[in-house]
Each structure stands twice: as structure tokens, then as C-alpha cells.
Amino acid sequence: MEEKLDFSIDQLGPCKVQSPIQLSRQHGDFRANYVKDTSFVRYTVNVYRDEETDSTLDNTTLIQKAGPREMIYFNPAHVNAAICTCGGLCPGLNDVTRAIVRCLYYRYGVRRIRGFRFGFQGFFPESGFDTIELTPHLVDDIHKIGGSFLGTSRGGGDRVVDIADAIESLSINMLFVIGGDGSQRGALDIADELERRNLKVAVVGVPKTVDNDLLFLDRSFGFETAIQEAKKTVEAIHMEAHSQINGIGLVKLMGRESGFIATAAALASHETNFCLIPEVPFDLDGPNGFLTHLEHRIRDRHHAVVIVAEGAGQELLQKTGATDASGNTKLSDIGIYLRDKIETYFQAKGIHTNVKYVDPSYQIRSTVTSANDSIYCERLGNNAVHAAMAGKTKCVVGLIHDKFVYIPTRLVTIKRNKVDPEGALWRDALDATRQPILMVNNLEAAMAKIKEQMAEDDTKAKKRAEEYERRRAKK
After folding, report:
1. CB-hemisphere CA count at 13 Å for 467?
2. Which among 26, 239, 252, 405 is placed 20 to 30 Å from 100, CA to CA?
3. Positions marked catalytic
């Protein structure tokens, strides 16, 4: 996006309470230091010597660093905190929940922490789900299991008034929303409604999306675990394909609009021959279509491994016309479609093949985190607590340039992050698979389609950003 971004963080009010966390104001005393609101991370780190650069340091170029502040907004004795996990499952949900509870309890002395069950549905009286009183003893071992200890569900984030009513009736003044871009948009709407009611409630998000498609962030939690598990599946399917006569292994992975998991799995496995993602169009038939190239591979090496992201090739399938509870378009099954097309193609050619198809998506989503992801979740949860205790709101915590920062929720929800077909990541994936740059028969039409999709994404992002700015201006 060409327009300037505003990374300033909303604040409930001045911080007048001394933090109970005993840290240092100076270096050299073997104690960690407090983080000041004047500590930032540059948004743009790349420098081009042949271009005139803007050296201005302001809210358009600086992102506030995360961490414990010396002076905080909330008196811990008065805090009534709440946590909910929303959307689909993702490795690390329990790790983040555990970290938030333990940081609130042990570092700040907060004793009233409740968990809302099954996402935003837990806020509605008709759902009949009681909240859970969360203590370190209750959550100490939940990181050892997958899924969500609190339970999760899609949708409900649009019932802003009902959610705000529940928060107000329970005297909650701190809400942690662990969820993807749809959940965070809901959290932003909830925060706006609470502000309209003059309620001082900190709403802080921990962005969760296994697809790694949230804007600005280096990576989302659970992504590394997903790659680790996907790699195991690819290794197994490669062994199946390699052991058969003209074996073809087909693996469908998560990735509705962004192919990060498929791309990373192709790089990690070193055994993938074709990687199909939503950002790069492909033809099935024709002299430069996918099936022709797959045939060349089979004739040459007698086995092949194909990874396809769930959102790839949707233009080849019949649209479902349906949406899920989160408002996402329900995709047609590219995995089954591709499997059937491959079998039909080679049968028509009279070439014997043995096609094995695997969709490990739900197994991956529900697994326990890897060591590195678990560390990441712990630090995300801690920094989310530091933000809320300092009265920061309408923000999410994340990693940018390997630094933990606070980012306005309105920015990370403008649009989804996608694999750049001209970027280094996809370039390296092409080197790993050795597949053609584009498997299309009409290059001009394919390029036009890519540009059209990018323009559509930018238009949606611009409209969303303008709506957010209108809402801010009204205040």
C-alpha cells in the first residue's frame, strides 16, 4: 500500500500505577529493563542507495516495542480479565492462554481471570456456556495437549452489542482475544463499542492464523509447527510414491488465500516436485499446463510429489456460493478435484500410475506445538498482558524484524498477507521444486489475472482503511 500508515497505539489513559514487576532503569545490574513508550522498531528496514529516502521518524515509520512498563494504567487488585479463543484450531492456543494467565497471576498479582468458552459464542446467554475461573494450577499442563482448552468456534464477532453487554455486566476491564483477522476485526468493533459506552476496557489481540497470512508480522504462532507436521506428511507420501510404479503423491495443505504453508513445506521437505498456491495461477491442460509437466516428470523419474494449497486453482472448480460462520467463502475441494483429474488424464494416455492422496489439515491444526513455537507463544502471551496492564487497547502483539511490538488492530486487519510471486520466498521454492515459473498457456492472460487480483486486494484494503479512519475521526 502506497499511503502512509499510522502505527500509533490507542491508550485508555495516563499510567499512574507503579508496576509490581521489579525491573531496572539502567544497564549493567543483571536485571532486565523496563520498556518505554518511546522505544520503537523501524517499520522499513530496507534501504536503497539509488533512491531518495525519507528519514522522518514518526508514527508512520516507527512501531512501538512491546514489554513491561514501569508505570501501568490498571491497579492489579482491580483487574477483572477475560480470555477467549476464536476461529479454527491452531497449534499454540493453549500455550498462549497459559502464558496470559500465569503472567497476570504471578507477575502482576491479578486474581480474577476468567475464560469464555467456545469463542465469541461464550458471551451469549442463549449459548448456555459458563465462564471458567482460570488459575495457574488449572492451566499449568494445557500446553501439553493440542486443540483449545477453552474451546473455540467461528462467527459471533458481529454481535458487538451483545458481547459488550456481557463484558459490562461482568465488570470485565481487560479482554484478550486469541484469533485470526476476522476475530481481530470483531475485537476492534467490540473495543469501539466499549469506548462509545465510556467503559475503560483494554482489548488486546494475540493474532492467530495457521496460514501465516496476517499483515506485517514475521510469522504467526502455530505456523512453524504446521510446517513441521506437513513435512512429515510430505516425507511419507514421497516414500509411497517412490515405492510404486509411476507413483504420484498428492498432499493438500491449509492456505485459503495465502500459500505460505504449502511453499514452506515444499522448501522444508526437499522432495516436492510441484507446489500449487492461490497466488500463482495454473492451467490443467494444454502444452504448458500442469498435467503435461506432471507427465514429463513421470516419464523421466517415474514418481512425483505434488503439494496443493486449499485455495489454489479455485477458478477451475464450480463455486459453492456458501460461506462459513466467520464469513469466509466455502471453497471447493481442490485436492479431490486434482486427484480425479490426474487419474483421468493418465488413464486416457494409457500410462499406469498409482495416485496417493492425503489431506492432513485437521491433524496438523490440532497438534501440540514445536519447542520454538511454544517459546513464541509464551512470549506473545506475556507481552499481550504487558500491553493491557499499561492501558493499551485496540492493538495486537506480534514479531516484526525479530522484535516484539504492538501494532494497531486496524492495520493488521486491512488485508491478508500473501506470497509474493516475484519475491525471494517463491523464487527459492521454484528452485527447490524445479517446476516452471508459470504453468499457463496464455502468459498475458495469466499476468493480467494476477494484476487484477492484486488490484482487487488493494481496493478492499483501501476501503477498509478508510472505514477505520472514518470511525476514528468521529471520536
Report:
1. 13
2. 26
3. 211
